[in-house]
Structures are given as structure tokens and as C-alpha cells.
Amino acid sequence: MSHEENGSGLAGQVVVVIGGSSGMGFETARRVRAEGGQVFMTGRNAERLERAAEIRPLGTATFDAADPDAVRAFFQELPHPVDHVISTAGGPSYLPLAEMDLGETSRHFGDRLAMTLAIAKYGQDKVRAGGTLLFIGGTGGRRPGVGRTVIAALTAALPALTANLALELAPVRVNLIAAGFVDTPLSASLLGDRLEARREELRATLPIRRVVGPGDVADLALHIMRNEALTGATYDIDGGQQLL
């Protein structure tokens, strides 16, 4: 019987949130705690991670998730098995070919794939059967455009990676959330003074007539954690942006 069927939700479960210091990661951690679950939270920035004290995590760790050795050390040091791992770490790269530093671009692409594989490789033995490794990707690269070359390649690669890992790591489940624009501190830092204009554009054009927020993504993440019939799939959440 799944946790959703027996009505327990996430009460008593333990969730690792990689990239949990802000945005989608922090909101997911907060909602897990609200449901009676426990969290381990990680982030690159120690000062931002101190915010985790607000929700009383089991523990925190500061490291760069793009470093496979740091990911391995983190999972090796976890004191006991966990129910779920969600990673919101990693950001997009939007640059036209003429402006690319090929070395930096290759590192970005390779780091993102290596991070996903490292979490799968070193996290699998810490996740209980029926739990999920849950990754965050995007939908923005599905439509061709100038400056979208790298993000498009990652957008195509992550669902394929997820499906194959779901078979290889079974009965641990592996799933991917593909988000469109989400109103987070990362979005604010990328858009700068264009942020409010982008919000207004989305409010006017999206079928849902509002901007997708971290809480929307967190709600979807918790559903995937609860529902033990879900594995190997990509779940879009973009407010209908792809329909336009």
C-alpha cells in the first residue's frame, strides 16, 4: 500500500532537498515540514542556507552540487536512509553562439549532467524502495530560438536520462519536473529590471492568467513523492506557456 493510499502523506518521512536555501527548493522543504516530514537541506551559499533554521531541518550542508566528490561525501555522511531526494540545483544558460565561451559552456553542460548522475549514483542506496529521486528541469528549450542552443540540449537530455535511470534504479523511482518561468530569486537575478515587465506579460498571456510560483512547483513535487505509481516521467508545469 502506498503512502498516499494509507493517508499518511509525508508525515514521518525524510526528504533531502539539494538547492534548498531559496526558491523552489526552500518552498518544497517548507511544505514537507508543514505535512509533518523532516528535511535535510543543502546549498552553495552558507548565509542563505541559514534561512533553513526557520523550518528546523534535521541538518544542513553547504557544498556545490556540481562537484561529484562533494555529492558523494554528502550522501556517505547521511546518518540514515531517506524517503526522497529532490534537486533544484543548477541554472539555465542563455547565450547566442557568437557570445559563448566554449570552455565555460562545455563545463556548464557537463556539470549539469554530472550533477544529475552523481545524485543518482550516490543517492540511490540512501533512498528507500518506493521513494523518489526528483530532478528539476525546464521547458524553455523546447522551442528553438537564438540563445537557446545549450538549454535546448539539456531540455532534451534530462527526460531521457530520467527514463533510463528509472529502470536502472528501480524500485527507487526517478522523476523530472520541467518548469517554465517560475517567479523565484533566480529569475529575478537573471532578468534584473525587466522582471516586472515579464511578470505582466505572463499575467496577460498565460491561460492561467497568473505567474507560476515556487509553491506551484512544490505542490507538484510533493504529489510525485506521495504517489508511488509515478516513475520515469517528466511533468510539465508552465501555466500553459507552451500552448502560446
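(ticket continues) Second input and output from the same batch:
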Amino acid sequence: MLTINVQNVQGDPRRTEHINRELRRLDPDLVAFQEVVQTPERRQLDELLADTGLHGTHQSDVMSYEPPWIDRYGGSAVATRWPHAVREVLDMRLAGAADVPWCTLAVAVPTPSEGELLFIGTTAAWRLDAEQVREQQAIALTDLDARHRRALPTIIAGDFNAAPEAASIRYLSGLQSLGGRSVHYHDAWAVAGTSPGHTWTVDNPNARDVIDLAVRQPHHRRRIDYVFIGSWHQHPDAHCRVRSVELAFDEPTEGIWASDHYGVVADLEIGAG
């Protein structure tokens, strides 16, 4: 599976084509996209999924309204190898995060032989001082899972805009409680990653200007894009083993960087029993 923030349609217009080309090479079964532009004039999700065989849903396809600035900053989308059913769209614009249009999509995905799993694609508040909002969003995310959970382990992926030591990520990883509540999901990179796994970094030329505006520090590197997997505590009769995990889109193609984020691709073994 793969998660990638595609940086809407800013910058080099060839970026979307390069992401599509790499998607066809990686051939993932599940994809969480962030910042995908979907307007009457531009359906970026269709371009991203061209000739991949994946079934895609953008938040705009299943919402009765459009959050402000979605035409500029894009929204969330998911794609799956097998046709999926949307279970819920969650508007994450809590107090303190009203300036972003990104919602969360929860879809039920039937696997060929093991049954159905819940796949959630998400994005959290981006500001450095918005961790309290991200904590609320993390709790809302786990409540969303609880409402629609299947026997197979839930997979949650996206741009969480928080480093592993942040409270929102520690909560999801079972390392601390929030509001008297606790959960446990496996952070795929913590399980099988072999490097710091920075996904938003000044090493990426596409990210430098954004980092200069948002952080204003010259050596900023963080891991903020994640794949989380439900553990046996919530799924006692199934398993999801992280076989490997690595960065994607972390090198230029023909001199073009795909996005201001690197992606995360994880090889997962999922089954009942």
C-alpha cells in the first residue's frame, strides 16, 4: 500500500504524470492521496489513476458541500485494487483548523480471499502550533474506525503533519493516552523502517520554499506521513504483518520532483486467523 501527498497542482505541470508513472510501476493495492484537486476544470484523481486499474474516490465525489479553498489546496482521495464502498466522510475542520479543506475517507474494501477491511485516508491540521487540534483529530479518527471496523485489521494512512514524538502520534501508537482514552495501532515505519524516514524535508527542493514559509529553519526534516495498522487488541482473529516499508517519490525523475512530500510504501501481509 502507498500514501502520498501530491501537493495539488502547484509547480511543474508534469508532476502528476510522473506520479502516475510511478504508481503504475509500484502497482499498490491501496493508496491514500492528499491534496488532490478535483474541480469541473481539473480532475486530478483521474490523471493520477490513468491505466493503473485502481478504483478511486475523491471526497468531493461523496460530499454534499465543498469546504473553502478545496479548488486551490485539493482534498483527500483513496484508491483500491478492488471496488470499495464509502462508509463515511469525516470533516476534520475542528476549531483551530478551519483553514484547510481536507477531509477523511473511510471505505470498506473486499479482499479476494480474506474478507473485508476498513481503509481510512486522512490529513491532519498542518500548523506547527496546532497539536491540540491534531490530538482531537486523532481521537476522531479512532472513533471513525470503531464505528466501521471489520474483522481484518484497519489500515489508516495519510499526512498527519506531526512527528513520531507528537502526542497525536504517540496516542495512535499506544504510547500515551488522550482525554483518558487509549488505543493501539502499529506504525509501519516503526516496525520495519531502516532509516529516519523523513517525508517532509529541506532535502526535497519542492519542499524548501514551503518549509521556509511555515517553519523558517534551514535544517528542517520530519517524518509526518504514516501507515498505521490496527493491532490484535481490536482484531483478535486476524493479522496484518508489516513485511517492509520504504520511501517513495524521494528521488527526481528527469529532474522533476513528484511532490513536496515523499510517499510511504508498505508491503503488508493481511489475513484471518
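Agent notes: The longest strand covers residues 238-248. DSSP finds eight helices and 14 strands in the chain. Closing as not reproducible unless the customer responds.
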